[in-house]
Amino acid sequence: MLDPKTLYVTSVVMTAMMTLLNYLTWRANKDTPGTVLYIFYPMVLFAGIIGFALHSHFQQWQTIGVANGLLFAASMLHCWAISQFLGVRDKAFQFYLIITGILFCALVYFSAVAPGLRQRILISDLQHIAEALLLLYYFIRYAHPLYPNGSIVYLIVLSFILCVFTGRTLLMGEINHANLLDSPWFTITLFFNGVLAPIFYATGMAILCNERREHNLNRLTEKAQQDLEIRGLFLSTVSHEIRTPLNGILGSAQLVLNRIGDQASKAYCEAIINSAESLNLLIDKVLDYASLEQSDEVLAAEDIEFKSWLNNLCLLMTPMAEQRGLTFTLVYDMPEQVCYYCDQQKLRQILLNLVGNAIKFTDQGEVKICVELVKEGNMEHRVRFSVIDTGPGIEEEDIEKLTEPYVQSSAGKTKGGTGLGLAITARLLDKMGSQLEIISELDKGSSFSFDLTLTVGELSLVEKRHHNVDYATGLDVLLVEDLDLNRKIAIEFMAIDEHRIKLANDGQSAIEQLTKHAFDVVLLDMNLPDLTGQEVLKRLKNIAHKNRRTPFLAFTASLSPEEIKEYLALGIRDVVGKPIKQDKLRQAISNSQKAQTPDISVELSDTLYDESAVASLSGFSEDEVSSIYNEFVLSARTKLRHIQQLLDEDDQQCIKLLHRQASTALQLGFNRYGLTLKKIERRLLDKKRCDEELADAMVLWQQSLEAYLQYVRHQTVG
Asked: How far is C-alpha 701 from the geometric centre of its chain's CA atoms?
């Protein structure tokens, strides 16, 4: 065995080192309970070892009593520190204190009254056994589930201590001062308790603190995630709850606007409608931002034909730019035939946000998307996207803040908006491993750019692209439609086939467009706010315009035999019935470029609610679809009652309202209700009374609503 003096010196060094390590652990974990007490444990233990060394020289009972008392104090400090760290103060600790007190009294007795070396060693061993048993109990029951690694270190050393002191209690025979240092049990216990244990304890406490810190960080992360989810849920819930009365305000204001003739009152109603629509836009953006913060979805990589995909995207935005008198172009500096794997939905949302902002804030000049290849690798390309406008520019101090939520530039505050568009864009780019770079100069314009590393897709897909398809692509189309929902759906469908679209919201603007531009085909709504489609066609016959040979397609839900006969007599080439179906729209446009017999038939299932109608809204987000249905469902009964009230006052207004309601109902899948409204519209056009039919329509709407709600409940449960 080791020399006892060497062990004494080593144990002194180890306890001193433990003191230093415990101090460093405390400095890094000052808020952790028990770490301060743990610094004093090796210091008291160190004093006890020194006391035993002094006793070998003085041979006084006072020195041995003080030395043993210091060891008892060190033991209690050790247990107290661990109980503080674990936050435990139970009956086991109280029992340990009682046992320690009894043993200390016995120690004093066998030191001062009836001195006995063997008895003092036995008492010391029992005290160490009590300490080891308490700490083993704590680490097995409380610490191991939370701090497994640190607990393993403590369990190992405490098991050794328990075995050594239990062995000495049971196996060591009679001993005296003369042969104490020569006893192997003395050197064994000194080695484990004075040399080995301090290092294990210091290491174990450091590991425990690290695990506690990691546990706290994980708990804080989970809490932050929960807070984020709660905030997102709150925003979503509140936004949806706000939307319900907001749709009521919007619908009521539109109804009042249609009934009043006073221009001043109309201006107030229009202000209400504009404010409600702005608030609705804010709600949509808040929902987008909330869902983005909550979502941890993985990027969905799809193989897309890049140039064709960009062209389709630009076709969606071109009508909006042209309505504001702006030039909108795509500058494509990339290989003509290239495919990439990317999350096209997120990239689409990013570009639409940036282009939408550019068009909104640019009053004159141009907006362009520039796409260029920055770095070309074997399997990956670095592609830079830039959206450049000639708008008012952004002040330098505003640029850094623009990607924060609810922050707007001075131009944004003037034009209005939510302050969330660029924040959503920045979050999406962060998910895609990129960031938005903004360069702007006042009164000259701005550039919003970002770089993406895209994996090269299967180039063979480009070669297989349908160049010889059975339907027309890339035509110049004039879309004349006043209903926003129908306009959006038609643009989405036609952009897929790369048609270039111009918009007109009423008959007069359609005539102006037809006199200025030549089109390949015209989609004409037959019931516009100012003129009917028939009146537009009749006026065109009497003026000079550039579309004498251009085929016109009737865009309508009025499909009675008499009406179709009238359309064809006026020169309509084909009829695109509402609700809009992609296949029918594509076929009608293609047939208009050939000498094809028109296919007028529109198949609608005779059902209260057609579940397949949602598929026609595939170009809209889930929140937008929900908003569209909510607005219609919440206002349908009110609008029908308004029509009943107007019946004897203004039958022309009733016809217009019925037409709009029927078109929207059919588009959203309320087939039986929509067809009934079309029949009532037809009766009014024929100057017939329809009071009973309107009452029946009210009952039919209630049945249709129940069918729709049953479908929604089924979808929610599913």
From this structure: 36
Residue 574: beta bridge partners?
553
Query: In DSSP terms, which residues pair with 452 in a beta bridge?
Result: 383
Domain assignment present for residue 606? The answer is: no
Show the tokens assigned to 244: 């319900």
pLDDT category of residue 132 using cuts at 50, 70 and 90? very high
Q: Are residues 133 and 21 in the same domain?
A: yes
Please report, as a single letter, which amino acid is at residue 583: D
- Report the alpha-carbon distance of residue 695 to residue 643 in Å, rounded: 11
Query: Are 120 and 38 part of one and the same domain?
Result: yes
Q: How many domains does the chain have?
A: 4
pLDDT band at 295; cut points 50, 70, 90: low
Bond from prior residue into 245 cis (ω within 30 degrees of 0): no
Range of the domain at 151: 4-207
- Rounded to 5 degrees, φ, ψ at 145 are -65, -35
**Is residue 18 situated within a structural domain?**
yes
Q: What is the dihedral of CA 406, 410, 412, 417, to 10 degrees?
A: 50
CA 51 to CA 613: how far, in whole Å? 91
Last residue of a domain, one of 186, 207, 228: 207
Is 615 within a domain?
yes
- In contact, 401 and 419? CB cutoff 8 Å: no
DSSP reduced 3-state for 339: strand
The pair of three-digit structure tokens given for residue 553, joined into one six-digit string? 């397609």
451 lies in some domain: yes
pTM of the full structure: 0.46
